[in-house]
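Project standup — Tuesday

K.O.: blocked on the structure for the chain from last sprint. Re-posting the sequence here as requested.
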Amino acid sequence: MEHVRNGTVTLISSPALLGELARVIDRPKFDVILLRTNTSRAQTLAEVRLLAEVIDPPPLTKQVCRDKDDDAVLALAIAAQADIVISGDDDLLCLARFEGIPILTPAQGLQRVLESL
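H.V.: unblocked you, prediction finished:
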């Protein structure tokens, strides 16, 4: 998020993915992260909504991911002409790339950003 705030990285999302984030961040496993970053769920969601460029992409013409819901991420990447997709989702990561766009873990994505500075 630091790189998004300072303009090094552009965060792209969609209405569907913002909705999913709102549901997922409510899981207890995020309590530790929120505590460590001294923020709340509401603050985090508000900041993501403020910082993200929101695009409502058309769906893919055929299913690509094992989990069809993850195709929304790929559709967004195509519509946004993304350089990379950063995800912790194994159903996306197992693809490694889609339409030439690398799909990286958060650690790999951060490394890529740091190397480009």
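K.O.: great, moving the ticket to review. The chain has a mean pLDDT of 95. Strands lie at 12-13, 53-54, 85-86, 97-98, 101-104.
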